[in-house]
Design brief:
Blueprint (H helix, E strand, L loop, with lengths): L1 H12 L15 E7 L6 H14 L3 E7 L19 E4 L8 H12 L3 E5 L10 H7 L14 E5 L2 E5 L12 E7 L13 E7 L12 E8 L10 E10 L2 E6 L12 H4 L1 H16 L30 H8 L8 H12 L4 H16 L5 H10 L9 H7 L6 H11 L2
Parallel strand pairs: 1-2, 1-3, 3-4, 4-11
Antiparallel strand pairs: 5-6, 7-8, 7-9, 9-10, 10-11
Helix pairs in contact: 1-9, 7-8, 10-12, 11-12
The structure holds zinc ion (ZN).
């Protein structure tokens, strides 16, 4: 039954604007995840973040995807004003001036923002952006970006020493220690918890105006770290706007899963930080299960997050030559991973047939489905293949698929 519902949810999306959709559990507030360029696996992390937010019951979440790196960005215009929350999952080419000023106006006028992990790598030359995120790293950041911010004793240190901004050692589990346990985002949570394997960002630097550190972790030198207590959860106020900045949640490019983003501590602080950024309050209850000081814990509702493959299917449907073919690679991996699970494979068959039949699916997408995905096809595809063979631009690929299915 659940699978059936998901198929309908996915098919319904075919008539909606690319990536700008809502699904399953709707909250009354609206959020938009901005992504599309990022050395990490932004496709999967965006799905995960959307699901995390929607499972709070508070947000309906859309995902907006930029052109690829190096492409013309002039059409990437976002009006942020309708949203209660903007989630930044983007590190890449400059946004057009209009989108930049829309974003600054949005925050200035009281908008809520969540800065996720390496979104703090972005836009090192954009003054207002760096004031909004508080601190950042990489992309040429040095002493001109602002002081290093870290904790020593119980003091927040602003260190103007010259040097690069942004580093991390090898990934590992580490202890999160709260610095402002009474902040609404943290209130009621344990004061220390073990975070799942992640990159521990260190040597972040920036203007850090109106920034409050909520939690930090010790970055061990023996693991390639800085030897300092490094801020990892922050809030910033900018104009009337509220910003929650989590440096946690690394999701490697090419990785299908991320223990960091699945950590119950990450999820809980993300949900609470999102609500605080959007409203200034946190009404969510403290979860019954949470990591302890010695053991990290996977968020118990995480298992079905990636079963919503709507963004992948949408990207496939809109595929044109020259665009990233990540969506096909991810879908292929999902098929191979689930090849023994007939229920899931039946769902995938249904999606592929739907894509092949739909007039909204690009010719390039159909070519790839006929050539690279016909190995899983069975007789149920034959009529579709025969029909596609009538189209001159697809006849060769359709014949290939027919021959392959008949083997
Ligand atoms: Zn990372």
């Amino acid at each position: 039954m659940q699978v059936r519902i998901k198929i309908f949810a996915i098919l319904a999306v075919f008539s909606v604007t690319l990536f700008n959709f809502s699904c399953t559990r709707k909250g009354s507030m609206t959020a938009i995840i901005v992504t599309g360029q990022n050395s990490h696996n932004w496709q999967r992390s965006s799905i995960a973040l959307r699901s995390i937010l929607e499972k709070s019951g508070m947000f309906t979440v859309g995902i907006t995807v930029s052109p690829e790196a190096g492409e013309d960005m002039s059409g990437f215009i976002i009006d942020f004003s309708p949203y209660d929350l903007v989630v930044l999952n983007y590190t890449g080419d400059d946004w057009p001036a209009e989108t930049q000023s829309n974003f600054v106006d949005y925050v200035q006028n009281g908008g809520g923002v969540v800065v996720y992990h390496n979104a703090n790598n972005s836009f090192s030359d954009w003054k207002e952006y760096n004031e909004i995120i508080g601190v950042g790293g990489w992309n040429g950041r040095d002493e001109n970006a602002g002081p290093y911010i870290y904790i020593s004793g119980n003091e927040v240190i602003r260190d103007n020493a010259p040097g690069r901004g942004g580093s991390h050692g090898s990934q590992h589990e580490f202890l999160i220690e709260t610095y402002k346990p009474s902040h609404p985002i943290l209130e009621g949570l344990p004061e220390r918890w073990m975070h799942a394997q992640d990159e521990l960002y260190s040597e972040l630097r920036g203007p850090a105006k109106n920034m409050e550190i909520l939690a930090y972790a010790y970055s061990e030198e023996r693991l390639g770290g800085s030897g300092r207590d490094e801020p990892l959860l922050m809030t910033i106020t900018y104009g009337k706007g509220r910003v929650f900045h989590t440096a946690l949640g690394h999701f490697g490019g090419g990785s299908l899963f991320s223990p960091a983003i699945e950590c119950a501590g990450f999820v809980t602080t993300f949900q609470r930080g999102a609500e605080w950024a959007a409203t200034g309050k946190v009404t969510q209850e403290v979860p019954a299960v949470f990591p302890t000081e010695t053991e990290s814990l996977q968020w118990p509702f995480f298992e079905d997050i990636y079963s919503d493959i709507t963004p992948i299917i949408s990207a496939m449907q809109q595929y044109e030559t020259g665009k990233s073919n990540d969506c096909f690679n991810i879908f292929m991996k999902l098929i191979r991973e689930n090849i023994d699970n007939q229920q899931i494979i039946d769902e995938y068959h249904s999606l592929i047939r739907q894509l092949l039949k739909s007039r909204k699916t690009s010719v390039e997408c159909k070519k790839i489905l006929l050539k690279d995905f016909s190995w899983i096809a069975d007789d149920s595809y034959r009529d579709i293949y025969e029909e596609l063979k009538q189209y001159p631009e697809l006849s060769g690929e359709a014949q290939y698929a027919i021959d392959r299915t008949g083997e």
